[in-house]
Amino acid sequence: MLTGGESATGPDMKLAIYDLDKTLVRRATFTPFLAFAARRLSTWRLILLPIWVLMMIGYRIGLYDRTSLKTAGMKLMLGSASLEQLEKVGRQFANHHVATAGWMPGVVAMLEQDRARGREVIVATAAFEFYARAFAEKLGVVDVIATQWDGRSIPGGNCYGEEKRRRVEAWIGTETEAAEMRFVSDSFADAPMLELADEAIFVTTSASKKARAEALGWCVIDGEA
User: Fold this and answer.
1) Are the C-beta atoms of residues 199 and 182 closer than 8 Å to each other?
2) Tell me, what DSSP letter sits at residue 193?
3) What's the pLDDT at 13?
4) Half-sphere exposure for 222 (CA within 13 Å, toward CB)
5) 2 assigned to some structural domain
6) How far is CA 119 from CA 9, 26, 46, 165, 190, in A?
7) Whether residue 73 is found in the same domain as residue 181
8) Are residues 20 and 129 part of one domain?
């Protein structure tokens, strides 16, 4: 498994990098995780969910950034839960979320094709690593680039947008330009990664999003197909 700035790349390295939420799995994961984990670790905190909803509204109107929102959400709903507890409940959550929300079959099929063709498959997501890794393991993916949690804060900030691109480039190392890269996502927030990739694949069933993505030169797929 590679971490930090380690790189397995070389001049012939072919990478297939996948987002998680609404790309590999049908639905977003963070709010469902907060509710799932609170129910198992600190049930009384479920009464705080309306406050979390108000906090999300605050983010949407620009009162604070995503890193601040997610940090506050973790403290509000999970208190001082240890990383060991979070990893354990994260594995339970991954099982539950896949069972209830399901994978995006077309995207998972693409991932399997990439693996069969010798591409190195990576999950790069804004989701917290302590549960994102559980989803990746269910797909047989070892390498995960994700948001970190140290029990109090998010070191380095949320793995989102430009920060996700920076972390992917750091993971690849000096061979970034030499590596052949496919990137798959459902989000325009991933534009920095989609622009970096040799093959940018956008996942949507929305006609308006499809038109916008195609205007940017990205290939569009229906992840359900």
Assistant:
1) yes
2) H
3) 85
4) 5
5) no
6) 11, 23, 42, 19, 21
7) no
8) yes
Domain count, the chain: 2
pLDDT at 46: 98
What are 50's two structure tokens? Answer: 């309306």
Pairing of strands 120-128, 14-18: parallel
Helix (H, G, I), strand (E, B) or coil at 65: coil
Q: Is 82 exposed, middle or buried (0-12, 13-18, 19+ CB in 10 A)?
A: exposed
**Which bin fits 224, alpha (ψ -120 to 50), beta or left (φ > 0)?**
alpha
Instruction: Judge if 119 and 69 occupy the same domain.
Output: no
Which CATH number do you get for residue 175? 3.40.50.1000
Q: What is the mean pLDDT of the chain?
A: 93
Local structure of 162: helix, strand or coil? helix
- Check whether 176 has a pLDDT greater than 90: no
Whether 46 maps to a domain, the answer reads yes
The reply to whether the predicted model has a pTM over 0.70 is yes
Question: Which residues constitute the domain of residue 194?
Answer: 14-28+101-221
pLDDT band at 63 (very low <50, low <70, confident <90, very high): very high
